[in-house]
Amino acid sequence: MKVTTESVATREVELTIEPEAAFVEKAMREAGRHISRIRPLPGYRPGKAPYALVERTFGRETVLNEALQEHWQGLFSQAVTDAGVDPYEAGMYEVVSTEPVVLKTRIPLMPVTTLGDYQSLHIEPEPEPTLTEERLDEEIEMVRRRHAEYEPVERPVEIGDQIVATIKGTVDDEDLLVDRTSSVLNVNADMTPPGFAESIVGMKAGDSRQFTLSYPADFEDENLAGKTVQFDVAVETVRQVNLPELNDEFAKTAGDYDTLAEMRTTLGERLEYRMKGEAQKREMAVAVEALVSASSVEYPQAALETEINGIIEARRRQLQQLGFEFEKYLEMVGRTFEQVREEARPDAERNLVRQMVIYQFARVEGLSIDPAEVSQRVERIAASYGDRADQVRQQLMEGRYQMSMYMDLLQERAMEHLADLLTGRVQPNAKQPDAQQEAEAQATEQSDQQEPSE
Amino acid sequence: MDIYRVLKRPILTEKTNYQVDTLHTYSFEVDVRATKYDVRRAVEALFDVKVQDVNVIRIHDTARRFGRYYGKQSGYKKALVRLAPGDSISFFEGV
Questions:
Q1: Which of B12, B14, B95 sits opposite A45 (nearest CB)?
Q2: How many whole angstroms separate alpha carbon A344 and alpha carbon A292?
Q3: Is-contact A6 A12, C-beta < 8 A?
Q4: Per-residue pLDDT tens for A247-256?
Q5: Which residues on A lie below 8 Å from B12 (Cβ)?
Q6: Of A42, A43, A52, the CB nearest to B94
Q7: What residues pair up with A208 in beta bridges, in sequence order?
Q8: pLDDT at A397 over 90
Q9: Is 50 exceeded by the pLDDT of residue A259?
Q10: What are the Cα distances from residue A200, in Å, to A153, A186, A205?
Q11: Cβ pair A194, A134 in contact under 8 A
């Protein structure tokens, strides 16, 4: 077999494959028999027509295509090995000539990551988060608000009340930009646009009032940003918010606590745990960002497309869970599928580069995940499903889930390790930059062994 | 008879392939008016071979019915041509 390689784009090559004549001959005869079995020729029982007759009747190209259906995969992997390239995905062939048989295929190659010299990178460690009393008070205040009682009152609206109101907002008497009927609002100083809360203070149930306010130019809803809107507000109900008193009774209703003090400590612990996790995440993000900007990744377009598809798929699933169909959603936001894809492109690009860098880092540092850890993760997820634990466990034992879980865990570990390294908490496993290659070879070996079998 | 009008087509079936292999006999559909001598002359001239024997068979018209309609399938004259040893006609090579 003769294979020539030609580079056509970033990490994309075109292989020209010319298989041995004897191989082609054999394969085509097989294919000829197969064709004559499916489409018998008059005068011959299925599968019995002479090859020459089959080729003349159906054409050499047809027979060749049939033969390739059977043999393309083998040819392709052989060609890839001969050419010494690392394909990202299998390619489709294109017949250049049938006599002799010459095929062409254009394939994307695996992305190549050139890791920056992370041993010289340094980031400031996130300060250890400290739990202040104020923060804890806020937390408890939130719980209180969740357990508040709402009591309809006859007095005018005050800041802190809850109201039910119909609000219409128009620009220049034309565009109805805000149109909410009987919606429940909490009156507080953060209401948008600024001044809204002040404007409705003093209204009673049954009152209506007109006023004009401007939205700030950097308002998040683009339709409203910078607009001056005439509001027409009709208050239907005013409710006073009665927060529960802070005592042991409240602690009992709000959760499984015996005393207020117990509630305070438990909430405090949880909050501290959460803050630590957040701090760690921030640190990891900074560390990864530092490494990514020091590294470079060369990838084929196909890898990016896969990533975009992944993002779109994830969004589709998310919408489905909310009970939307993706197509309906597209209609609602008034965009075409292609537009949404394009919009996902920058994110996809960032994700792809980031992931490649992290995996490469894991490889160089010789990180790996024990299969037992994957099982542990499976157990944890399964357990959270309660009654359906067995079912979930079984599903997660499937190869592709195992693989993705392995990759997730590896990524987590790599990010933690990276953060530890860059803040100087630990020393790198790969001692010298030029020892990277050795470590790489070793790591590949290790991870090959430790990847869960499918 | 004009030798270019004698032979209509080679008959290629499993049976005729078998006859080529064992009897060295090639089958043709020929013009119904052609005689054995016409066939001999035609085959010898067109394929540059020596003919030993020619047998002819008349395949009769057969009655056919397509639903309500009656019709017939045309018959033809078939010639079995035995060639001299060593000669061959290559319609297609390979099996």
A1: B14
A2: 20
A3: no
A4: 777 777 777 7
A5: 43, 53
A6: A52
A7: A234
A8: no
A9: yes
A10: 16, 12, 11
A11: no
Q: What's chain A look like in SS3? A: CEEEEEEEECCEEEEEEECCHHHHHHHHHHHHHHHHHHCCCCCCCCCCCCHHHHHHHHCHHHHHHHHHHHHHHHHHHHHHHHHCCCECCCCCEEEEEECCEEEEEEEEECCEEECCCHHHCCCCCCCCCCCCHHHHHHHHHHHHHHCCEEEECCCCCCCCCEEEEEEEEEECCCEEEEEEEEEEEECCCCCCCCCHHHHHCCCCCCCEEEEEEECCCCCCCCCCCCCEEEEEEEEEEEEEEECCCCCHHHHHHHCCCCCHHHHHHHHHHHHHHHHHHHHHHHHHHHHHHHHHHHCEEECCHHHHHHHHHHHHHHHHHHHHHCCCCHHHHHHHHCCCHHHHHHHHHHHHHHHHHHHHHHHHHHHHCCCCCCHHHHHHHHHHHHHCCHHHHHHHHHHHCCHHHHHHHHHHHHHHHHHHHHHHHHCCCCCCCCCCHHHHHHHHHHHHHHHHHHCCCC
**CA distance, residue A44 to nearest chain B CA (Å):** 5
The domains found in chain B, sorted by start residue, are 3-84 (3.30.70.330)
Q: Cβ separation of A44 and B11 shorter than 8 Å? A: no
Instruction: Please name the residue that has the structure tokens 């996130």.
Output: A126
Task: Establish whether this prediction's ipTM goes over 0.90.
Answer: no
At B34 the three-state DSSP class reads: coil
Which tokens sit at A272?
Answer: 């501290």
pLDDT tens per residue, range A4-33: 888 888 888 888 999 998 999 999 999 999
Structural domains of chain A in order of their starting residue, each with its CATH number: 2-109 (3.30.70.1050), 149-242 (3.10.50.40), 260-448 (1.10.3120.10)
**pLDDT for the residue numbered A173:** 65
Structure token pair of residue A330: 């597209």
Chain A residue with the nearest C-alpha to that of B17: A50
Note the Cα A398 to chain centre separation in Å.
Answer: 21
Residues of chain B with pLDDT under 70: 92-95
How far is Cα A40 from Cα A43, in angstroms, rounded to an integer?
A: 9
Contact A123, A287 (CB under 8 A): yes
What is the rounded distance in angstroms from the CA atom of residue A46 to the CA atom of residue A36? Answer: 6
Is the bond into A193 cis (omega within 30 degrees of 0)?
Answer: yes
- In single-letter form, the type of residue at position A234 comes to A
